[in-house]
């Protein structure tokens, strides 16, 4: 059948769809839903027809995942927490991006918190300098294990010692975006015990800025260009948005393959990214790669990525862009922790299986604070959104591991993130 619509009808339909997309979504998880809120019970499973619900059956007092269909964009999420008993709630978005950390509520009391999230799809719309297409996702990693990062819905992880989410309101937000681009030490890792500073960074920012993590395991600046990750960022970027870029670990493979080096192709690919971001009125920021965990016989922290740190610094100076020397902050951090205690900052899948490149939740949490401090030192406008009490991290005075209490997510993986296997 050939369906034809009058242009006026199509216009009205577009207006109606736009209004629906802009309308706040309001959910009530309590026994007595408030007027104007959609009631949610533990039995409300997500279905495409419903457009919201739990990804896995909800169980009282245990971590759960709640999803809501949403168009691509930025959103302010406001939650009311509390219940009859004492509560302690941690909320992560999409793939374990830490938004709220251990918010405590007394018995019978409530607390309201707001945070800003980003939802995206792989689609790249055509623009003045961009051809239409999609990000070349890695299968099955991004299409299965990391699918929540790319679907048309927001997924929230309700976690904590006693999670107590009463109501949830989601509203579109016209706010600046802080884009992240990098390798596995930046990207959203789908399961414990692996984590990245990119996943922890939202915790250290106030609402009013969205953090969109486009980093991916095993990749380089060259991969960002080839897989169109930078194009995806450019397609979503608004004037004044910031892009933090940290590569280096996997770029070393190009030396072994005879396809480049830190002071040649690496710098050229940095420049290609900087030029593209500037052409779209964005703010490029170069971050040097943090070190791997290495100690010599005298207990001195080893250096494996100095050339890439130096090349990143040179590029920033030559191109006149902001620079965050995460390499220079990571070495004293590891040195302060020492050969034994530093193990807690890196992922371990069991006795004898310590990954000396990829971080644990604790290590990622500390490095995220280092990045926030670097943003403030560099004078970036986005640093004005750093949460009160943060932005002055000193790597020789890290948080004690004994007091670290970010709850682990329910998802686990023994699969090491993609990367240079020879440099574990």
From TrEMBL:
Residues 404-424 are annotated as: Disordered. One of its GO terms (molecular function) is hydrolase activity, acting on ester bonds. Residues 1-21 form the signal peptide. SUPFAM superfamilies: Galactose-binding domain-like, SGNH hydrolase. Residues 180-329 form the SGNH hydrolase-type esterase domain. Residues 413-424 have a biased composition (Basic and acidic residues). PANTHER family: PUTATIVE (AFU_ORTHOLOGUE AFUA_2G17250)-RELATED (PTHR43695), RHAMNOGALACTURONAN ACETYLESTERASE (PTHR43695:SF1). This is Lysophospholipase L1. It comes from Pseudoduganella namucuonensis. The lineage of its organism: Bacteria, Pseudomonadati, Pseudomonadota, Betaproteobacteria, Burkholderiales.
């Amino acid at each position: 059948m050939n369906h034809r619509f009058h242009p006026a009808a199509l216009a009205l339909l577009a207006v109606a769809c736009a209004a629906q997309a802009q309308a706040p979504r309001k959910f009530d998880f309590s026994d007595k839903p408030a007027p104007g809120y959609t009631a949610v019970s533990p039995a409300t499973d997500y279905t495409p027809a419903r457009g919201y619900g739990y990804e896995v059956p909800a169980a009282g007092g245990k971590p759960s995942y709640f999803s809501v269909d949403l168009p691509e964009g930025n959103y302010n999420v406001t939650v009311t927490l509390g219940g009859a008993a004492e509560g302690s709630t941690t909320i992560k978005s999409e793939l374990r991006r830490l938004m709220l950390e251990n918010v405590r509520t007394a018995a019978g009391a409530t607390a309201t918190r707001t945070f800003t999230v980003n939802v995206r799809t792989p689609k790249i719309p055509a623009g003045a300098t961009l051809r239409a297409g999609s990000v070349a996702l890695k299968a099955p990693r991004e299409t299965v294990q990391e699918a929540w990062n790319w679907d048309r819905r927001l997924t929230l992880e309700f976690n904590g010692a006693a999670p107590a989410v009463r109501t949830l309101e989601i509203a579109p937000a016209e706010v600046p975006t802080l884009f992240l681009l990098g390798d596995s030490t930046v990207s959203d890792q789908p399961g414990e015990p692996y984590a990245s500073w990119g996943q922890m960074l939202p915790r250290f920012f106030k609402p009013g800025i969205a953090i969109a993590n486009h980093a991916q395991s095993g990749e380089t600046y060259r991969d960002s260009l080839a897989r169109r990750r930078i194009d995806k960022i450019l397609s979503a970027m608004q004037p004044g948005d910031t892009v933090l870029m940290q590569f280096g670990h996997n770029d070393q493979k190009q030396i072994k393959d005879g396809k480049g080096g830190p002071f040649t192709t690496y710098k050229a690919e940095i420049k290609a990214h900087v030029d593209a971001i500037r052409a779209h009125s964005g703010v490029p920021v170069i971050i040097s790669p943090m070190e791997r965990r290495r100690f010599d016989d005298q207990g001195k922290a080893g250096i494996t990525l100095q050339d890439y740190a130096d090349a990143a610094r040179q590029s920033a100076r030559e191109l006149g862009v902001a620079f965050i020397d995460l390499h220079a902050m990571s070495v004293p951090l590891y040195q302060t922790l020492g050969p034994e205690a530093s193990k807690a900052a890196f992922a371990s899948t069991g006795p004898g299986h310590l990954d000396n490149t990829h971080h644990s939740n604790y290590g990622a949490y500390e490095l995220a604070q280092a990045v926030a401090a670097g943003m403030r030192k560099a004078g970036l406008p986005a640093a004005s959104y750093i949460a009160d009490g943060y932005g002055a991290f000193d790597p020789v005075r890290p948080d004690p591991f004994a007091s670290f209490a970010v709850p682990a997510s329910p998802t686990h993986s023994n699969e090491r993130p993609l990367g240079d296997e020879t440099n574990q």
